[in-house]
Design brief:
This protein is 28% helix and 28% strand. By secondary structure, the protein is of the alpha+beta class.
Length: 374
């Protein structure tokens, strides 16, 4: 019975999310997807030209080249951007269902996330410098479930993600390698974050890996987009989040403080140091002196998340309660204030609840549609 309910929820989610998504013109960016070809064990790489509701029209690059790579970026690397443009035949477009698309199997589980990389998000969280942290999470589909529980303050973040067709070892390597941009979500438990964050150095990234890793925390969009000019492309991407049809986030990706090339330079400079914690283990951003092919860079989220910094008024009020209630016998003032903030978060009901629907969208990137379950 539970499986039937789950399937019904997924179907209703997909149907309710049906809307026309804007696809970039191929001269601007190649929109790639992977799909199971009927009767074949291989994934076909599609060049998507149009999406309407639950259907899309695409040119089958794998069929044309008789090439079925696991990574759609491999076809761009081997054939070249201009060559692919030259072979597209509008008379050979085929219609696919959106739910036929598959995640690229090359996306791994260890990723690099940028925190507070938008000025307005720095203001709402009161963290006034950007930072990096590891995110350990397996990608999940663009229409799926995300689980919460009574002890979790579940929050959303919409992000522009990027991955690479090969290892990135230097700036020169970054300039040359094929880059694939896609939509992603960075889901997190704010209760766990408040209990593990380094309050004396929030920009250390300590606590963020624990709060943002694990199952259901990394949904990814349907398309891998290869821009002809990645800098120009970023400026055309509008990111947004809706919860139960109400807009929560909306910002242009060009407002990120550090762009992809600068983030890559930072990762290569400090990433091999074991400066971060995951549970009780010290871990690096990257295991070697390069960014692995399967690793993703999450470039940060705009303002509009549920979590907000603790106001000075509340710090004073809860600090007074800590003293007057003799709680100093059991905890520090900082620990007490953080626990009161967590308690207030649960009482507010503002965080994601079972039954909520979350839609993350990006211009030219499609959308991610989630149902919150318990």
């Amino acid at each position: 019975m539970l499986k039937k309910i789950t399937s019904l929820c997924s179907l209703l989610l997909l149907l309710s999310a049906a809307s026309e998504a804007e696809i970039a013109q191929p001269a601007v960016a190649l929109t790639l997807a992977q799909a199971n070809k009927q009767g074949s064990e291989h994934l076909s790489t599609l060049l998507v030209l149009e999406e309407k509701g639950t259907t899309l029209k695409a040119f089958d690059l794998s069929e044309h080249y008789n090439s079925y790579p696991e990574d759609p970026l491999d076809i761009v690397s081997s054939k070249g951007y201009e060559e692919i443009l030259s072979v597209v035949d509008s008379s050979k477009l085929k219609t696919y269902q959106l739910d036929e698309l598959k995640l690229s199997p090359v996306i791994g589980t260890q990723h690099i996330a940028a925190g507070t990389n938008y000025r307005a998000h720095q203001e709402e969280t009161n963290i006034h410098s950007g930072f990096l942290f590891p995110k350990i999470s397996k990608p999940t589909p663009f229409f799926s479930q995300v689980k919460t529980s009574p002890d979790v303050l579940l929050d959303y973040e919409v992000e522009l993600c990027v991955r690479f067709q090969e290892r990135v070892m230097s700036k020169e390597n970054f300039d040359r390698v094929v880059k694939g941009f896609f939509l992603c979500g960075d889901m997190s438990d704010r209760a766990l974050l408040l209990r593990t964050i380094d309050v004396d150095n929030q920009a250390s990234g300590i606590g963020f890996t624990d709060a943002k890793s694990g199952d259901d925390r990394f949904p990814v969009g349907p398309y891998t987009v290869v821009p002809k000019n990645w800098q120009n492309f970023i400026g055309s991407v509008e990111l947004s989040t809706e919860v139960n049809g109400v807009q929560r986030q909306k910002s242009n990706a060009s407002k990120m403080i550090k762009k992809t090339d600068t983030l890559v330079e930072d990762v290569l400079r400090i990433g091999a140091n074991k400066n971060w914690l995951y549970g009780d283990r010290s871990i690096p951003l990257i295991d070697n002196a390069y960014i692995e092919k399967g690793s993703v860079i999450l470039t940060g989220t705009p303002e509009g998340v549920i979590f907000q910094s603790i106001t000075l008024t509340k710090k004073i009020m809860w600090g007074a309660q800590w003293a007057l209630s003799f709680s100093f016998l059991d905890s520090s003032a900082v620990q007490y204030v953080l626990e009161k903030a967590i308690e207030s978060g649960f009482e507010s009901g503002r965080y994601l609840q079972p039954g909520d629907s979350v839609k993350l969208s990006g211009t030219f990137l499609g959308s991610i549609n989630l149902i919150v379950t318990q």
